[in-house]
Specification:
- By secondary structure, the protein is mainly α.
- It has two domains: 1-51, no CATH class; 58-113, no CATH class.
- Helices cover 29% and strands 7% of the residues.
- The chain has four helices and two strands.
- It has helices at residues 19-22, 64-69, 83-96, 105-113, and strands spanning 58-61, 75-78.
- The protein has a two-stranded parallel ribbon.
- Helix 2 (64-69) links the parallel strand 1 and strand 2 (75-78).
- It is elongated, with a radius of gyration of 24 Å.
Length: 115
């Protein structure tokens, strides 16, 4: 759902063409019908309008075995392990094309493999 500023359709300077100006502003006037959520008025931003995320599972990876069980469409997070094991897991992930959400794989390898 797109929430637009009150009265955007009345004024040319805050109309649809002006993306920055059309953006949401909370109605604050004393007699404002939109603020009072009157029937026939546009909706106000409130709890319950949030879009559902895809039904993706979070997977925390601690070993190479966990990595083999993970799907590409899952949210994959690298768990707490030692540096030696992390390097092994990351190499395997790069081979299989899996992306971690909390680690930049190539930067981590570049930084830690030379040591």
């Amino acid at each position: 759902m797109e929430f637009l500023r009150r009265g955007w359709y009345k004024h040319k300077r805050i109309g649809k063409g002006k993306k920055r100006k059309v953006g949401w502003r909370k109605p604050k006037g004393r007699d404002n019908k939109m603020r009072e959520s009157r029937k026939g008025k546009p909706p106000i931003v409130s709890i319950g309008y949030k879009k559902q995320k895809d039904n993706r599972k979070k997977r925390i990876i601690y070993s190479i075995k966990d990595l083999e069980n993970a799907n590409k469409n899952d949210i994959i997070i690298l768990g707490k392990t030692g540096k030696k094991r992390k390097i092994e897991i990351i190499k395997k992930a790069i081979e299989s094309g899996i992306v971690f959400q909390n680690v930049n794989l190539r930067r981590f390898l570049k930084k830690n493999e030379s040591r």
